[in-house]
## 1
Amino acid sequence: MVAVAGIAPDVDGLGIVAELLTKDSERPLLWWSEYHHVLGHNLGLCLLCAGLGFAFARQRWKTAALIALSFHLHLLGDIVGARGPGGDQWPIPYLLPFSNAWHLAWEHQWALNAWPNVVITAVMIGVALYWSWRHGYSPLEIVSVRANEIFVETIRKRFPVERSETRKT
């Protein structure tokens, strides 16, 4: 639930599919252009996600707090390093749907494909691979225990590790 909350704000980005499919039509749907960073990047969706986590998790408060943190880390990442195509900045209407008064933006925001994002991504992939190799589990475990086992086994065949150093899988 925490991992899903970290990507939940970008559900509003799915509008790009409708926009691309209708771009040459008489009445194109501008669902991505008009609504990305609007519908999902706000306090309302954060509260909904945290509320769902609270309702369905065993450790209610901890899960809701981690969901809110994960959600807000996504927003922070967008504010710092998600300048749009053509240099467009996407201010985040944080208080929606309660108010349209406060939009978050940072004038020094770098482009989504700028070097800091590439470096951060490469480092985090390295950390995830190391964690998988060392501890025996990966982000794939969220989706499938078997896929995780195959992934870890593959990494460990390529880079053997002593059994005493790892979690039993």
Note: The chain has two domains: 1-111, 114-169.
## 2
Amino acid sequence: MSWIVHLFRPKAELPVRAAAAVDAWRALPAVPETAGLVDTRFVVVDVETSGLNPRRDRLLSIGAVAVERMKLAPQHTFSAVLRNEVPSTRENIALHGLTPAAQAAGAPPEDALADFLAFVGRSPCVAFHADFDRTVLERAVRVVLGVRFDNPWLDLARLAPALAPEGRRVRGSLDDWVAHFRLRVHTRHNAVHDAQVAAELFLILMARANARGVATLAALRALDACRQRTMGGYIAGV
């Protein structure tokens, strides 16, 4: 069944495994705002969708990478393609490479999203243009699993110019910042690979934040919020 059908069918009970994952996630404590950056597990997230409207277009895949103790945790990665029986457009497929066969063979949305909740836990989420990823994931989790995904978020598109002003890329893309810091990219517009390179950017920015005395989750979120007021709110793709 296509993911979009969940919007219009009556609410059904979740499969046992998905329901258990949701219950376990709900039982987890929130990460305290006073937590030090070095003590906080972050999850850097990227999504691929059927278009650029996060309130309407379908979620196709999720990639996520954990950052623990201000280091990448390469053994802790998450990747899922959600089953979509009606494929996205040719132009969209050319961007992310998820063929109609790959979309049709994806995991059931309730399983993929339950597994994502189990992976992310209550960790703060990080993304480049985070408003887009947050909106897509909050909508999908609410529609498919019936739960409010309310983890805190940080936006690399706002933190990067705040912590690396020499880049002078106030509205720069992820590619711009990758080039600025000479980061290695395996494949762009693949969710888990984009999450990986975004995680490398996040590590650079966390080190700079720590050097400036921004040492807690609350302080980093305050810097993000301050930059949001300066730049103005927006939702945009990578």
Note: The mean pLDDT is 90.
## 3
Amino acid sequence: MNDNPPVLILAGGFGSRISDDSTLVPKPMLEIGGMPILWHIMKNCYAQGLDDFVILAGYKSHVIKEFFANYRLRDSDVVLDSRGADDKVIIQNGRSERWRVTVLETGLATMTGGRVKRAHSAIGDGTFFLTYGDGVADVNYADLLAFHRGHGRTATLTAVQPQGRFGILDLMGDAVPSFREKSQADVGWINGGFMVLEPPVFSLLEDDDTVLEREPMEQLAEHGELMAYRHTGYWQCMDTPRDRTMLQALWDSGTPPWRNW
């Protein structure tokens, strides 16, 4: 049993609602405290022992690739030696994380389910985490994974209660008998991402047009294979300029509630 499942992060969307900046970079690369929100998500995972990341990229994926290709240079000493026959670049005193990052090209217009389906060959048949690249939380991943393995179903999502402009989950105990995606009229528990999934979910993902949060989740709920891990701690997505400003202010305070490193 793998106690260190890979973490898939959906990072292919346009993010057109949040700001003009998102026309220049993918939404998960918009910065909080000088670092992409994608980095904040990964740092939280890494601090809890998760070190294998698969980024499901699409829009301006080269920005994500370039960030991680150059990541070790940010906080390291670099020696550029061109005295010999071959130029050498030597990184010294590197202080970056020892993680594995795979950036997958999952298509410009591919839907969420299609992006996950494209990752199947990269991660194989095993338990995996999945989350969105535009939200932070102080979720305890060990507890989430233990909850998931304790009930033995195909899928677990993290249910959160924001200040209500999204849709709801109808919960019966910890089971999710029905799933409804975002609705402006509803207030209650919502899908906050930070999911744990088993390989049978791939059979529900037909093609690039499959939206994970529609038929696949609805079928899992209908067959009793979708469970909710209730998270009552901090959670915040970055959907609007106001969200981004608030997250930046929390970072500037010195004690951002999602930071665990």
Note: Residues 149 and 196 are 9 Å apart (CA to CA).
